[in-house]
């Protein structure tokens, strides 16, 4: 068994085994919040009992004093983000792994300069938007090192990146949704990827333009998280899935989604299963959507466009930016504001309401 203790502002787990050397091993949990620390502690205990984790051997469980080299720091950082989704962790592993290969795993983290980061970005021969994405992945890593007092400043803050033109998210019109569904119906006898026809995709598209779920959230959605009577749906963390932010959210269900879900057989585990009743694979979902979208003549959209559609339709109906942020599970209002250009009248109405006649100054000429 392990115990929880706090050193300064940070929580640690302490494992004890009289037959090991040393008998007690401390593991940094990388959090200042007790509830999160307790969750991580139980997770480590379960993994230890299942012999999937050994605090005496696993290099990722290090104290802040072990963050001197880049490779060690990357391992510790990725472990500290274990509460995030698998997709997010994979992105960190990919970008930071390339960075380690370029700079060198034995390089002290406090000697990494903005010039080295810039050389790494230039060596990738990527488009400006990809370099910006790489930087947005490196930046949390360096910010974390600053928090751990391993470095004094985030080197990405002094980078000079080529400006990337701002683009509004691509979303579907009701006519586009109908076109994709019609393309699927026209090819009822066509098997996609040799498994089944695309008929299963129609209710998923029709539901997700209102739900706005990420592909990973949709394929992991379980019936136990849906309450049709109360018209609520919970985007939940499970033993095999973590949301992008690690946070759960509850969505109110509109009539269109309630009607779609009510027609489903609720005897299985997953709301949108694969053809055999198991979990639908997100890549298979993505490929199938692109396949039929192209048949409908839509060549610049993907399944994530259905998520953009939900946010865009909410903005067009003058829904408030904070309500959209909570519904979509955005990390900040800045992300949500990309959609607000679709409702200029809402912006005007809010300003006019703020400067209502009762609040205006008496202006005399």
CATH topology-level fold name of the largest domain: hpI Integrase, Chain A
Physical arrangement of strands within the biggest beta sheet: 1-2-3
Task: Name the structural class.
Answer: mainly alpha
CATH architecture of the largest domain: Orthogonal Bundle
Q: Profile the largest sheet.
A: 3 strands, antiparallel
Count of folded domains: 3
Q: Helicity range of the residues?
A: 40-55%
User: How many angstroms does the end-to-end distance come to?
Assistant: 80 Å
Task: Summarize the structure in words.
The protein contains 14 helices and 6 strands. By secondary structure, it is mainly α. The chain has 3 domains: 2-58, no CATH class; 65-158, Tyrosine recombinase, N-terminal domain (DNA polymerase, domain 1); 174-348, hpI Integrase, Chain A (Orthogonal Bundle). It has a 3-stranded antiparallel beta sheet with strand order 1-2-3, with helices on one face. Strands 4-5-6 form a 3-stranded antiparallel beta sheet, with no helix packed on it. The protein is globular, with a radius of gyration of 25 Å. The relative contact order is 0.07. Mean pLDDT is 84; it is low at 59-65.
Any chance you could write out the topology, listing elements then pairs?
Elements: E1 2-7, E2 10-16, E3 24-28, H1 34-49, H2 70-80, H3 86-103, H4 114-123, H5 128-147, H6 174-186, H7 201-211, H8 215-219, E4 226-227, E5 232-235, E6 249-252, H9 255-262, H10 282-295, H11 304-316, H12 321-328, H13 333-336, H14 344-354
Helix pairs in contact: 2-3, 3-4, 6-7, 6-10, 7-9, 7-11
